[in-house]
Every structure is written in structure tokens, then in C-alpha cells.
Write a structure and sequence with these properties.
Strands 3, 7, 8, 9, 10, 11, 12, 13 and 16 form a nine-stranded mixed beta sheet that branches. A five-stranded mixed beta sheet has the order 20-19-21-22-23, sandwiched between helices. Strands 4-6-5 form a three-stranded antiparallel beta sheet. The chain has 446 residues and is α+β, with helices and mostly antiparallel strands. The chain has helices spanning 21-28, 44-63, 77-82, 111-121, 167-187, 226-229, 244-251, 263-269, 292-297, 320-330, 358-373, 387-397, 407-411, 430-440, and strands at 32-36, 39-42, 67-68, 74-76, 94-97, 103-106, 130-139, 154-164, 192-196, 206-213, 219-224, 255-257, 275-290, 300-302, 308-310, 312-319, 332-333, 336-337, 348-352, 379-381, 401-405, 415-419, 425-428.
Length: 446
């Protein structure tokens, strides 16, 4: 993409309402436009990042054996009355009445709707397990929307739902999502720590939330330090095998947020030099709640014993749009965003320091073409701005690599390559610069 043709409305000044880094940089880098409290338009740069995050989430759900579908944003109130959650959910639910007087709601989650799908079509234990997911917009009428997309009212979420014949089988499905989440976040360059969690209005008694450590996190975190350094299980995990040992390895160490924290247990179970206290941002939450919804909504299957059984269920959420902000909170500096390669809107930026100069234009066009052919998706800054403006703009939007092309370097047959994360610079020939950057994207595994 040529910057001269791209819609990138940067802000010079940070709006006073932006309290945290991700909110400041998303506004300044032209990623989003706020229309009202907690409501945003996703502009091209932000939308591109969000779609890359969504694709990683989708790939890891598919790898774990989940099957994608799509449910509507608007749901009938009668389903929520069946589960007794319509009145209990509270003012966060946006309730709507259509022209015929039917009561509807803008879905904050989809347990009821998918339970209705399941009970309509599944009759026998032979059709189990079922693990279905979709990626859809949700709405929760937050009392105090803040921190940009980290706590907005409308947000994009992946929510998956499992259905099994008994609790032992339900835990197998739960474990698949547990491992899939660790791999998902690792692919985004994040270290997510699983923590025992309160089930809240979802229900059940088995739940973990996944938090990334950041100074601006809303939750206080208490955990064994070894959990932070523990690597993700990896993309070679066989999801058809018993995953319990992998889960146990990551749940046997103390890890809780302030809501579930037990000071005495923390001090008894964790050596003093391993006690980590920090703040964290929730990026995923998984639940195993048994028959909470299947019982109230009559979702039954015929078991191998010839009797009807209520399906044992779980639900599994990832905040896709929230992750855009979460990644920025975990990866930025004073100059701007530092995108991990896997979710960067463009793989590299090409900075032409002398637009109109025949040699500079020719080399930039050649690099642009070769990087595009290699699948790097470059952003070519072909605007006639001063070098300082170009440098600041490229640092702000945080592309992993910058190729700086100027007449002085070209006299010696070189361009400068900058690594945005480390700040390291090296002088290379144009062809060597292309090969170097292509090589950096060759292995995108965990």
C-alpha cells in the first residue's frame, strides 16, 4: 500500500480522555474514531490489526477441533427467560422492543442461543462431543466505558460452546480450549497467565481467565513467577490425546486475581523469591458449568444407557477487539506502538527520504514490488514530507521493520534497515534488505 493513497488520519495531540497507552496510540495512529462513550469506528489501520488477531484466534480454534458458525447480534428475550438470566443479567444488557412489541436484546453473550440450536438438532450421545464457535460483535452497556477499546460497550468477541455427555467428557473439551488459548496468545507475542477465576453470571464452578501482565491492568495479580516464563504448549500438540498433564502443569502453581486471592495460601504455597504481584489485563475467559443452561432449557440427549441426559456444557471467550489494546499495552515505547510481526498491519515500512529523486524513487519501487511479491505487505511512504515527519509517523504506527532510502546512502549502494522493537540499525544493499526482512517473516510459529 502507498501511504499517499491510504486513509491514515494521525493526530498530533493526544485527546484528554485517553488515560492509557493503548487508547492514546490508537487515537493518535488513526486506528479508531470514537463516536460516543465506548463506541468506535475501526479505521483501516486498526481494522487490519483486528482482522489479523481474529485470524489467529480462528486458526487455533480450528486446530483444537472447534467448528465455526455465526449467530445474530440480536436475540429473542424469551430464550433468556428460559435460563432465568433475562432479569438477573442487569443493566449491562441492552433491551429492545421491535415494531410488533416483541422483546429482543443485543447479545452480550450466546449461551442461550447456542443451547437452543443444540436442542433443536442433537438427539444422541453418538453426536457428541460438539464444540462450536463464532466471532461476532457483542454489546454490554458498561456503567463507565473507559480505556478505549479495552472497556468499550460494543466489542468483537470469539465465543465457543462445548456440549458433552458427562462431566468427565466436558473437562476434556475444557482442556482443549485451555491449551488452545495458551497457543493463541503466544502467537500474538503475548505471555498470558491462566488464573483461577470467579464464574460470575455465566455460572459453574470451573473457570480460568487468561491475563497478560501490564501496569495499566484493571486486575491485581498474584502468581508464581515460573508461570510467566513457562512456554506455550506449542502448535504440535495433538488435541486428540489426553491434555490433562499439560493443564495440570499450568494450574498446579498459584495464580489468582484479587477477586480470588487467598493471602495465606499464596504465602504458604509460593516461595518468597517466586511471589509475583503485578497488574493484569484479561484477554480470555473459559468456563465449565455443567447443566446450568441445558437443564433450564431442556437440552437433552439419549445416553448409552438408554436414558436422557442433560448436556454438560462449557463456554470460552476471547476479546478479539480488546486484544488490539492489550497488545499495545504490552508492547510500546514513548514513540508509539511496537507490533509483533504476527499482527502488524504491514510487515515493513519503506521511507523515501527524497520523493522525486530518480534514484530514490526507483529503489523504493523495486523494494516495494519485491516485498509485496514475498508476501510481506509493505507500506510505502511516498509522501513528500520531511524526514523527521516520516520517522515519527513510522515509529508511531509501529511496523516491525523500516527501510530508509535516501540519496546519501544510495551513493554507496546501501539503504538503512531499522528494527522497531530493538532500535537496531544496519546498512544493507537494497536486495539484501529485502532478503533480510523476508527471512524475519519466514518462521512465524510460537
Amino acid at each position: 500500500m502507498r501511504l499517499s493513497r491510504y486513509f491514515l488520519p494521525l493526530l498530533k495531540e493526544t485527546p484528554a480522555s485517553a488515560e492509557i497507552a493503548s487508547h492514546r496510540f490508537m487515537l493518535r495512529a488513526g486506528m479508531v474514531k470514537q463516536h460516543s462513550a465506548g463506541i468506535y469506528s475501526w479505521l483501516p489501520l486498526g481494522y487490519k490489526v483486528m482482522r489479523k488477531i481474529e485470524q489467529i484466534v480462528r486458526e487455533e480454534q480450528n486446530r483444537a477441533g472447534a467448528v465455526e458458525m455465526l449467530m445474530p447480534t440480536i436475540q429473542p428475550a424469551e430464550l433468556w427467560r428460559e435460563s432465568d438470566r433475562y432479569d438477573d443479567y442487569g443493566k449491562e444488557m441492552l433491551r429492545i422492543t421491535d415494531r410488533s412489541g416483541r422483546e429482543l436484546l443485543y447479545g452480550p453473550t450466546n449461551e442461550e442461543m447456542l443451547t437452543d440450536v443444540f436442542r433443536t438438532f442433537v438427539r444422541s450421545y453418538k453426536e457428541l462431543p460438539q464444540l462450536l464457535y463464532h466471532i461476532q460483535w457483542k454489546f454490554r452497556d458498561e456503567v463507565r466505558p473507559r480505556f478505549g477499546v479495552m472497556r468499550g460497550r460494543e466489542f468483537l468477541m470469539k465465543d465457543a460452546y462445548s456440549f458433552d455427555i458427562d462431566m468427565d467428557a466436558a473437562v476434556v473439551s475444557y482442556n482443549k480450549m485451555f491449551i488452545a488459548y495458551l497457543n493463541t496468545f503466544a502467537r500474538m507475542g503475548l505471555k498470558a497467565v491462566p488464573m483461577r477465576a470467579d464464574t460470575g453470571p455465566i455460572g459453574g464452578d470451573l473457570s480460568h481467565e487468561f491475563l497478560i501482565l501490564a501496569d495499566t491492568g484493571e486486575s491485581e495479580v498474584f502468581c508464581h513467577a515460573d508461570l510467566v516464563d513457562m512456554p506455550a504448549p506449542g502448535l504440535d500438540v495433538d488435541f486428540e490425546t489426553d491434555l490433562q498433564s499439560l493443564v495440570d502443569e499450568r494450574t498446579s502453581l498459584y495464580a489468582r486475581t484479587d477477586e480470588m486471592h487467598d493471602k495465606a495460601a499464596f504465602e504458604a504455597e509460593v516461595p518468597e523469591d517466586k511471589r509475583l504481584t503485578a497488574r493484569g489485563i484479561e484477554v480470555g475467559h473459559i468456563f465449565c458449568f455443567g447443566d446450568k443452561y441445558s437443564k433450564s432449557m431442556g437440552a437433552k440427549v439419549m445416553g448409552p444407557d438408554g436414558r436422557e441426559h442433560f448436556a454438560q456444557m462449557g463456554s470460552y471467550g476471547v476479546g478479539v477487539s480488546r486484544l488490539v489494546g492489550g497488545i499495545i499495552e504490552a508492547s510500546h515505547d514513548e514513540a508509539g506502538i511496537i507490533w509483533p510481526k504476527s499482527v502488524a498491519p504491514f510487515g515493513a515500512g519503506i521511507l523515501n527520504l527524497r520523493v522525486g529523486d530518480e534514484a530514490c524513487d526507483k529503489v523504493c519501487e523495486d523494494i516495494y514490488s519485491k516485498l509485496g511479491t514475498a508476501g510481506i505487505d509493505p507500506l510505502y511512504d511516498d509522501k513528500p514530507d520531511r524526514g523527521g515527519v516520516k520517522f515519527s509517523r513510522m515509529d508511531l504506527i509501529g511496523l516491525p521493520y523500516q527501510i530508509i532510502v535516501g540519496p546519501r546512502g544510495l551513493k554507496d549502494g546501501i539503504v538503512e534497515v531499522k528494527d522497531r522493537k530493538t532500535g537496531e540499525r544496519q546498512n544493507l544493499s537494497p536486495d539484501a534488505a529485502v532478503k533480510f526482512i523476508t527471512a524475519q517473516f519466514a518462521d512465524m510459529s510460537i
